[in-house]
Amino acid sequence: MPRVQSETKPFNFERDALSFPNELDWVYRENAETGKMNFAQVDPAPDYIHHCFVVVRVAKQFFLHARFDASAEKVDQKTYRELVREVLSRSPRDLEPDPRRVVIPGFADLRSFSTAWKTLIKDEAGGSWQSYVQLGNWRMILPFTRNGHQRTVDQLLTELKADWPPIVHIVTFPIITINHALLIYAAHETDTTILFDVYDPNNPAESGKLTYDRATRTFIFPATNYFAGGPVNVYEVYHGLYF
Q1: CB neighbours of 142 closer than 8 A, spacing ≥ 6?
Q2: 104 - beta bridge partners?
Q3: Which string of b and e fits 4-23 if b means at least 16 CB within 10 Å?
């Protein structure tokens, strides 16, 4: 579990998400003749693909280790680059005391900062290879049980109550129809479901949803322009020694 800190605040999607997306090279599109949804290659090919783990990791590192001061004077590119490097050198797994946070002057939040300095942040965040070698990737090949999903839900709810936004890997295996990372920042419970609000790095414009069905103990991710929708396996990453 992360250290609970009295001065932490919940992750705010409008402020704490990056302004730019992890881009898609393939998307679901409706076939005009058949009405069915088919995958189509994006043309022209985008530049920033396969960075879903990178994007949510960066957002969490800024959430944990940076503080924005809009009242302070803006600085030059060299100084901003040094500040970004300092933030990204810190672990997404642990919470630093507030006095040690890196101060980003001249901006109110990560969304506005990443709008102004998108290329700089992308350059410093690292390549798409980091998504492929993320420490917890080994877990996806092992069986997922309903009891295991319930334990995951309990863990996620506990962390959210401590204002700790967990990053999860959502995947289907061995037939991979989705292999993606989300940052969860809120939960809404009913007698039958738990609806998680998620920051989907593929769509920074609006909040996403991940549903947990209590009766079947199943996670369900809705249809998007990159996934047909349906049950998924979920586990937390950037968490502990092995994930």
Answers
A1: none
A2: 68
A3: eeeebeebebeebbbbbbbe
Q: Are 66 and 102 in contact (CB under 8 A)?
A: yes
Nearest to 65 by CA among 97, 20, 106, 26: 97
| Per-domain residue ranges of the chain | 13-132, 135-237
Tokens, residue 107: 């901006």
Dump the DSSP string for 81-105: HHHHHHHHTS-TTS---GGGSEEEE
CA distance 18 to 49: 15
The letter for the amino acid at 35 is G
d(CA 194, CA 232) in angstroms, rounded, equals 15
Which tops the pLDDT comparison, 226 or 196?
196
Residues 6+ apart with CB under 8 A from 175: none
At 94, the pLDDT band (50, 70, 90 cuts) reads: confident
pTM for the structure as a whole: 0.90
Q: How far is Cα 154 from Cα 133, in angstroms, rounded to an integer?
A: 27
Q: How far apart are CA 121 and CA 81, in angstroms?
A: 8
